[in-house]
Specification:
- The complex is a heterodimer of chains A (360) and B (283).
- Chain A has helices at 6-37, 39-43, 68-74, 132-137, 174-181, 198-208, 217-261, 263-272, 276-312, 322-339, 341-348, and strands at residues 48-52, 65-66, 79-94, 97-106, 119-120, 127-131, 145-148, 151-159, 168-173, 186-187, 189-194, 212-216.
- Chain A has 360 residues and is an alpha+beta fold.
- Chain A folds into two domains: 2-37 and 232-356, no CATH class; 43-226, no CATH class.
- In chain A, the strands form three sheets. A six-stranded mixed β-sheet of chain A has the order 9-4-3-11-1-12, sandwiched between helices. In chain A, strands 5, 6, 7 and 8 form a four-stranded mixed β-sheet that branches.
- In chain A, α9 packs antiparallel against α10.
- In chain A, 47% of the residues are buried.
- Chain B is α/β, with parallel strands linked by helices.
- Chain B contains seven helices and 14 strands.
- In chain B, the strands form four sheets. Chain B has a six-stranded mixed β-sheet, sandwiched between helices. A four-stranded antiparallel β-sheet of chain B has the order 2-1-4-5, with helices on one face.
- The longest helix of chain B has 18 residues, at 178-195.
- The radius of gyration of chain B is 20 Å and the shape is globular.
- The two termini of chain B are 17 Å apart.
- The chains are: A alpha+beta (360), B alpha/beta (283).
- Chain A binds chain B through residues 1, 4, 264-265, 268-276, 278, 351-353, 355-359, and chain B through 49, 52-53, 56, 58-59, 79, 82-87, 91, 93-95, 97, 99-102, 110-111, 114-115, 158, 170.
Chain lengths: 360, 283
C-alpha cells in the first residue's frame, strides 16, 4: 500500500537491482576467473599430480621434484604413465603489448602440453604454443616472434581456452624451459595417468616415494581454486559489502521517503486501530517486496550480462554460482530488514491524532 | 451504574509546563447516551480537537476518566489502545481520510480487518454497508473517483463497520455543499436513532444543530452555558459576551467572535442587530 507511486517503487527496485547486479557480476567474474585459473589442471589427462612435499598448488608456489622420480613412479602398480613438466611464470612480451603468463615446459607429443591445437603444431626447440585469444589480443600469428623469460621464441601453434581476465598460458619444450630456468634434472610436477582408483594411486605414491606430495586432479584443482579465493577474499568481501551498502542506502532512503510522503495515511491507519506491529509489518512487506523483485530482476540481468560478456570478451567468464545467489539472496533480506529500521521508527512515532489536523 | 455509552469525568489536558504550559481542556464532564447525538461547538483553539482525540483514545488526558461502556479507557495500556479504537469507536473526519490506494469497499474492509474480520465475511459486510448507504455501484471506485458526499458516506460506512457503540465525527460536513452536508447530518442522526449509537460531533456548522439532541459550547477548554451566549451577526458563530469584541448600536450591544467580524459589521453600516443566542443545554 505504501508504494502506490509506481515511479517511487520502480526507483527503489532499480536501485537495489543495480547494487545486486554489481555484487552478482563481480562474484560471477571472480568465480569465472577462479575456474580459469585451474583450467590447465581441469583439462589435463592426468589423474594424479605429484609435487614437492608440502606444495599443493601451482599458483603462488614453487615445486621442485627430481625428474628421476617419474621413473620411480612408473614402476608403481596402477600407474599407466608418468610425465614431468616444468612450470614458471613471466610476461609474454610482443611488439603489440604484454600479458602475464604461465610458462609450461612439456615433452612434445606427451600429455603435459596443450590439449587442443587450433592452428600450427607442437613446439620444437626455440618455439612455443600460445593461446589464440592472447594471440588475437596481442596481434600475433603463427611464425611471429615473442619474448618470455628473457628469451625469444617463435610461435609454432595456437591452442584455445587458456586465457583468462588475469593471464594466459604458453607452452614450450621441457628441455628449453629447463635451460632457460637453469635447472637441469628437475621438474616442477609429475603428471600421472592411472589404471585404477586415482586416490589409491596417489596414496601409494606418497607411501613409496619420500619427499613428494601426491594429489588427485580433483583435489589439486580444488586446492588451486582455494588459494586464489583466499588471496582475493578480502577484496571480494569489500566489493560485496560496498554493493550491499549501496542497496541498503537505496532501500532505506526510498522507504523513508515513501513513509514520509504517507505519514497522514499511516496516521489514519493508526487512528483506525492499526498497532505498532501492524505498521511495522506494512513497511517490512514493502521492503521485502522491493528486494525480492529486485533480486529476481538482478539474477536475470546478471545472466544476461554474462551472455553479453561471453560474446564480446571471451576471456572473461561470468559464472553465477548457487553460493553466490544464496549470498545475494540472504544479503537482500538483511538489506531489507536493516533498511526498514529507520522508516519503522518513524511510523511508530506517527501520532494517530494527526488525523484531526488539516492537511497543509 | 450508568448506562451511558461514553462518559468523561473531570477531563483535563495540559501541554508543556511552567511558563509554556497550555491548559487545552479543563475539567470537562460529558455523558452521551446510546442513541444520542451531541454537537460540540466552539471557536478555533477552544480545545475541541484535543477533547475529541482524548475521547477517541488517541490522546491521554492529564487527569480525569473516560468511560466507554463502563470501562475506563484511560487506564488501558498503550499497546491495547489500537484494538480498542478499532472495535469501540467509529471515526468520521472533515477530510474523509480515506486510504487513497484502496477502493471504497477495501477502505471499509480495512477497518473490519483491524477488528479481526477478514476474507469473504469482511468483503460481504463492507459491500452491504456501502450498498445501504447508496454506494452499491461505487464499491470498486478509488477515493479520487468519488465525490465529496460519496467519500464521506464511505467514511461513515467505515466508521460503522465494526458496529462501535460510539461514533466520533470531526467537522463531518465542513467540506461538503449544503445539500450533501444536510444529507450527511441526517445519516448521523439515523445512525444514532436506528442503531442506538452515541454520536459526538465536533463542528462549526450550525446546520448540524437540527440533528443534535444537545449542543455544547466549548471555549478555552471548558464547556460554557449556551443560554448566556450571543451570536456573531457576521459569521453566525456563538460568542461568549465576556471579553468578546463588541459594538454599541442603537442602545444595544452586538458581540463578535473576532475583531475582523466586528470591523466588517461596522463597515457594512448600522441597521442590523445581534441574533438571539442559540438554544441548547449543558449536562
Amino acid at each position: 500500500m505504501l508504494f502506490t507511486d509506481r515511479r517511487r517503487a520502480l526507483l527503489g527496485v532499480a536501485g537495489v537491482v543495480i547494487a545486486l547486479v554489481m555484487a552478482l557480476t563481480l562474484d560471477g567474474i571472480f568465480a569465472g576467473t577462479t575456474r580459469q585459473v585451474s583450467r590447465y589442471i581441469d583439462t589435463s589427462p592426468a589423474d594424479v599430480f605429484v609435487s614437492q612435499e608440502g606444495v599443493r598448488t601451482i599458483h603462488m608456489a614453487i615445486s621442485v621434484v627430481p625428474v628421476a622420480v617419474a621413473d620411480e613412479i612408473r614402476q608403481l602398480p596402477g600407474v599407466d604413465w608418468a610425465e614431468p613438466i616444468l612450470f614458471s611464470s613471466d610476461a609474454l612480451r610482443t611488439p603489440g603489448g604484454r600479458r602475464p603468463s604461465y610458462v609450461i615446459g612439456y615433452e612434445p607429443g606427451g600429455q603435459g602440453g596443450p590439449q587442443t591445437l587450433v592452428e600450427g603444431r607442437d613446439p620444437d626447440a626455440g618455439e612455443m604454443v600460445i593461446d589464440d585469444s592472447a594471440a588475437t589480443a596481442l596481434d600475433i600469428v603463427v611464425g611471429d616472434q615473442v619474448e618470455v623469460l628473457g628469451a625469444a621464441w617463435t610461435v609454432s601453434g595456437l591452442t584455445t581456452g587458456m586465457t583468462s581476465i588475469v593471464n594466459t598460458s604458453v607452452y614450450v619444450t621441457f628441455d628449453d624451459l629447463a635451460t632457460v630456468l637453469g635447472s637441469p634434472g628437475v621438474a616442477s610436477y609429475i603428471l600421472i595417468g592411472t589404471e585404477g582408483d586415482p586416490g589409491a594411486v596417489a596414496n601409494s605414491i606418497e607411501a613409496a616415494i619420500p619427499g613428494v606430495e601426491s594429489q588427485t586432479r580433483t583435489r589439486f584443482s580444488a586446492e588451486e581454486r582455494s588459494v586464489v579465493r583466499e588471496m582475493s577474499t578480502d577484496l571480494l568481501n569489500i566489493m560485496s559489502l560496498a554493493a550491499l551498502l549501496v542497496g541498503l542506502a537505496v532501500i532505506g532512503l526510498v522507504l523513508y521517503a515513501t513513509v514520509l510522503s504517507r505519514l497522514r495515511e499511516i496516521g489514519v491507519m493508526k487512528a483506525l486501530g492499526l498497532g505498532r506491529i501492524g505498521v511495522s509489518r506494512l513497511v517490512l512487506i514493502q521492503a521485502m517486496w522491493t528486494v525480492m523483485t529486485a533480486f529476481v530482476l538482478a539474477v536475470a540481468a546478471t545472466f544476461g550480462i554474462g551472455a553479453i560478456v561471453a560474446a564480446v570478451a571471451p576471456d572473461i567468464d561470468v559464472v553465477v554460482e548457487t553460493g553466490s545467489l544464496l549470498r545475494a539472496g540472504i544479503g537482500s533480506i538483511i538489506v531489507a530488514a536493516v533498511g526498514v529500521i529507520l522508516p519503522v521508527i518513524r511510523v511508530w512515532r506517527v501520532d494517530p491524532a494527526t488525523v484531526f489536523r488539516r492537511p497543509s | 451504574m450508568t448506562n451511558a455509552a461514553l462518559t468523561a469525568n473531570h477531563l483535563d489536558k495540559t501541554y508543556g509546563e511552567g511558563t509554556t504550559e497550555v491548559h487545552a481542556v479543563r475539567a470537562v464532564d460529558l455523558e452521551v447516551q446510546p442513541g444520542e447525538v451531541v454537537l460540540i461547538m466552539g471557536p478555533s483553539g477552544s480545545g475541541k480537537t484535543t477533547l475529541l482525540s482524548m475521547l477517541g483514545a488517541m490522546l491521554r488526558p492529564s487527569s480525569g476518566q473516560i468511560l466507554v461502556g463502563g470501562a475506563d479507557i484511560t487506564a488501558i495500556p498503550e499497546s491495547r489502545l489500537p484494538k480498542l479504537r478499532a472495535t469501540t469507536f467509529g471515526f468520521v473526519f472533515q477530510d474523509f481520510n480515506l486510504l487513497g490506494p484502496l477502493t471504497a469497499v477495501e477502505n471499509v474492509e480495512f477497518a473490519l480487518n483491524l477488528a479481526g474480520v477478514t476474507g469473504h465475511q469482511a468483503r460481504t459486510r463492507a459491500g452491504g454497508l456501502l450498498t445501504d448507504l447508496g454506494l452499491g455501484d461505487r464499491l470498486s471506485f478509488r477515493p479520487d473517483k468519488l465525490s465529496g458526499g460519496e467519500k464521506q458516506r464511505v467514511a461513515i460506512a467505515r466508521a460503522l463497520a465494526n458496529q462501535p457503540p460510539v461514533i466520533l465525527a470531526d467537522e463531518p460536513t465542513a467540506n461538503l455543499d449544503s445539500k450533501i452536508g444536510r444529507e450527511i447530518a441526517r445519516f448521523l442522526r439515523r445512525i444514532a436513532t436506528e442503531e442506538k449509537r452515541a454520536v459526538v460531533i465536533v463542528s462549526h456548522d450550525t446546520r448540524l444543530r437540527d440533528v443534535a439532541d444537545r449542543i455544547l459550547w466549548l471555549e478555552d477548554g471548558a464547556f460554557r452555558d449556551l443560554q448566556t451566549m450571543s451570536t456573531d451577526p457576521v459569521c453566525g458563530m456563538s460568542v461568549d459576551p465576556q471579553g468578546a469584541p463588541h459594538l454599541q448600536i442603537d442602545g444595544g450591544t452586538v458581540y463578535f467572535c473576532s475583531n475582523g467580524c466586528r470591523d466588517e459589521y461596522a463597515l457594512a453600516g448600522a441597521g442590523r442587530h445581534a441574533a438571539p443566542a442559540p438554544q441548547g443545554n449543558m449536562r
